[in-house]
Amino acid sequence: MAVPAHAQSATTALSAATTQTTRTYNIAAQPLSSALLSFGKQSGLQMTAPGELLRGVKTSGVHGQLTSRQALGQLLAGTGLSYVVSGNGTVILTKTAASITLGPVRVQGAYGTENPRGPGVGYVAQTTMSGTKTDTPITEIPNSIYVVTKQQMQDQQVQNLAEALRYTPGIYAEGMGQQTNGAAAGFGGGSFKQRGFSSSQFIDGLISNSEVALDPSFIERVETINGPTSVMYGQAAPGGIINESLKRPTDTPLRNLSVGFGNWNRYQATFDVSDKITSSGNLKYRIAGIGVSQDTQTNYVRYHRVGVSPSVDWKIDDKTDLTLIGNYVYTPEDGAYSSYLPAVGTLFPGKYGRLSRHLFMGEPGWNNHKETGGLFEYLFSHQFNSHLSFHQTFRYEESKTNFSYVYTKSGALDSDGVTQPRVAFSVPNTTRTVALDSHLLGKYRTGEVRHTAVVGVDFWDYHSNGQYYRSDANSLNIYAPQYGNFTPHFGYPGMGPADATSWSWFGRDTYDQVGVYFQDQIRYKGLTVTVGGREDWFSQNSWSKSNFPYTGTSSTTTSPFSTKAFTWRAGATYELDFGLAPYFSYATSFQPQTGTDVEGHAFKPTEGKQFEAGLKYKPRGFDALFTASAFHIDQTNVLTSDPQNPGYSIQTGQMTSKGFEVSAQANITKDLRILASYTYDDVRYSKSNDTTVPYYYDPTSNQPAYHMREGAALPLKGKYAAAVPRNMTSMFVNYALPEGKLRGLEFNFGARYVGWTYANTANSFKVPAFILFDTGVRYDFGKAASFLKGLVGQVTISNLTNKYYITSCGTAQCYIGQGRRVYGNLSYNW
């Protein structure tokens, strides 16, 4: 190992603890600029270098148990570079022949090695913007945050948000079946349960209610914050939020083309290109696009989509930055199919056996879900001085959807065991969302205490204009379906004459929310205390009109209301020298409710209150993050029946969720990456005046429906929430062969266990537990021949054994999970 002489003389400026402690280094041969990122992370040193100095310089890498001095010397060997150490301990690279520095450009090291909105490193992300709206190490945030990195999404070749979240603790991503029929219906939608409550979805920190889902081709990473988040984000469910980061220009050139194929006649092409526009690099661009066509596991349900997402980053000066992002998606058929199948024939034995997962309960030529939508977003920041900066994010979204369905009518099979009643509807809808978040970020000291304070205001405006037409449809024989006998009876021109089941609805909704918030992260040595509060003002103005063409009657309702809510949180973490960080926090959340009580008073928002305690461990020896947490959530102000005034509600209901989560995300070596997690969640109606009607499977009874019997009403209090697994556990491993003739070959394997769930709120029957296996193989052809450099092939199989399983059920119907999905991809990077 050759260490530059100047480098040797400079090592005395480094602390003894840093230079004498050995660490495991695994940094492959690559451009020096990217190698320094890995070195800073693995060594804990803060590195800086002139941008011109690194251009075109490569390193042969560094491997083994070494001190930071030895590792840095090996990393710089043959590069013509050495280093000096500044007064504050920062390591600055220089040319070996001269120690003149040219205005160093920061190459992030230790914490801050990755962009907190960027793809992460392997399966591990160290920092996040989502938890505090500041670039903060995850170990300093006193609640559970899990990051799905770009590498994880690529290894698993995820096609939608549900697939991206399969290995994330605290989330059940397949509960309602919309995304489990094999369609790649993008990155939104679905009904995700997060700590037992429906998740709220955000994009780049702003709430998103767009009807059009984002595509995974446009997403850099996905973060989940488990537990109440209203202090930083306003209205949100107490279980937490999902925050997706859009792709934006990269610091180094990126050029990627890919073609994909799979079962159900899937064909896909994508591109992703990023580079600088000006020679100085202060203006950069990126553009990603996708085109896909696919059938699904359900007959007559198809998925077609084209989309593009351009972005530009402008470094206006050394203190000011502006990023512009656009996104447009056209989906003439989105592949979503939410129609459930009878419980008898799926969960329970059917008259003629088990129903096929290909069974289509709709009507060919009628069922379709068409979506068109786009967004524009900008992110602006300005650094006034070393202590104060301003940050602003703005987004405008607009979408149009038009979907028409014939699907299973609520209720069980007819008494013959083969006839299923159906219902038809058509829903054209337009939505528009404007969101803006502005805040000041201050960093200052009071003695030995460091503060990172945020003061901000955000605004959200949502408009929806929709129509809804409904009537009963003809029944279907589930074992011998015959289509083509459906005629719409909506009672409007072009939609058939009205019948006794026809009705329609027209509605306009406007929601406005303004919030003012503050937060202070107070650090003293290893202790970080986070406190924050927020006041929100929320208003809604809804108008709707219902028509009943067959009777010639109609009714009109308006429901304007306004409310406000105060939320707060406080928590503390203490990071020990060896990387363990215990933490504790209390946080609250709110969600507005519509309607009034018997006296005409508007209902207050529901309130979420959570206690959470846990441990986070960031080992010093290798790149990993371990998390263990226990939580208790109460959601209060829940509506329940007013016992003194039948037909009205009061706010004395309550739901309680309590449990714990354990997770591991690790890049054990440069060749081995692992994910593992376990979740236990007990969710029940802890207070309620309501009752619920149970359905039971009874093979001796055909009344009122085939083998499903309605029971007497039961108290809802004490019952467990439906479609929330008590237990979930998963593990995913990716391994690359390190050497030999098969170098460049990677394998991965995953297992997902979902425990049983109750099918309904009456807890009258259960959905069985299931375990699914995923696997894949990837080969880098460039390792075999230099002229194939950049060419990579990959094949992924989910639900390897093609297991037939039920994701959730309702009164007497169930959703079938996704069967075996095979997807291959050939990509080229240059």
TrEMBL record:
<dbReference type="Pfam" id="PF07715">
    <property type="entry name" value="Plug"/>
</dbReference>
<keyword id="KW-0408">Iron</keyword>
<dbReference type="Pfam" id="PF07660">
    <property type="entry name" value="STN"/>
</dbReference>
<keyword id="KW-0998">Cell outer membrane</keyword>
<keyword id="KW-0410">Iron transport</keyword>
<dbReference type="InterPro" id="IPR039426">
    <property type="entry name" value="TonB-dep_rcpt-like"/>
</dbReference>
<keyword id="KW-0406">Ion transport</keyword>
<dbReference type="GO" id="GO:0015344">
    <property type="term" value="F:siderophore uptake transmembrane transporter activity"/>
</dbReference>
<keyword id="KW-0812">Transmembrane</keyword>
<dbReference type="InterPro" id="IPR036942">
    <property type="entry name" value="Beta-barrel_TonB_sf"/>
</dbReference>
<keyword id="KW-0472">Membrane</keyword>
<keyword id="KW-0798">TonB box</keyword>
<dbReference type="InterPro" id="IPR012910">
    <property type="entry name" value="Plug_dom"/>
</dbReference>
<keyword id="KW-1134">Transmembrane beta strand</keyword>
<dbReference type="InterPro" id="IPR000531">
    <property type="entry name" value="Beta-barrel_TonB"/>
</dbReference>
<dbReference type="GO" id="GO:0015891">
    <property type="term" value="P:siderophore transport"/>
</dbReference>
<dbReference type="InterPro" id="IPR037066">
    <property type="entry name" value="Plug_dom_sf"/>
</dbReference>
<dbReference type="InterPro" id="IPR010105">
    <property type="entry name" value="TonB_sidphr_rcpt"/>
</dbReference>
<feature type="domain" description="Secretin/TonB short N-terminal">
    <location>
        <begin position="45"/>
        <end position="96"/>
    </location>
</feature>
<comment type="similarity">
    <text>Belongs to the TonB-dependent receptor family.</text>
</comment>
<protein>
    <recommendedName>
        <fullName>Secretin/TonB short N-terminal domain-containing protein</fullName>
    </recommendedName>
</protein>
<keyword id="KW-0732">Signal</keyword>
<keyword id="KW-0675">Receptor</keyword>
<dbReference type="InterPro" id="IPR011662">
    <property type="entry name" value="Secretin/TonB_short_N"/>
</dbReference>
<dbReference type="GO" id="GO:0009279">
    <property type="term" value="C:cell outer membrane"/>
</dbReference>
<dbReference type="GO" id="GO:0038023">
    <property type="term" value="F:signaling receptor activity"/>
</dbReference>
<keyword id="KW-0813">Transport</keyword>
<dbReference type="Pfam" id="PF00593">
    <property type="entry name" value="TonB_dep_Rec_b-barrel"/>
</dbReference>
